[in-house]
Amino acid sequence: GELKQVVILRPAILMDGECIGKYRTRSEGDLAVKGGNEISRKDVGHFVAERLLGGEWDAWEGKGINMAY
Asked: pTM score > 0.90 for this model?
């Protein structure tokens, strides 16, 4: 089959640490977030819980998202 309602999340190098909430995202092609090389697991979880599932799904649906600080 074919997945129609999907978001691909590509975080930078995952690290332990607190949720800062000041991460950057990029969804243009396969381009990485410029200058970003790490992100905390808690910030990735924050993005999924608060933004994707919290009401911004339609804005991100069908995209690949790169995340980093």
From this structure: no
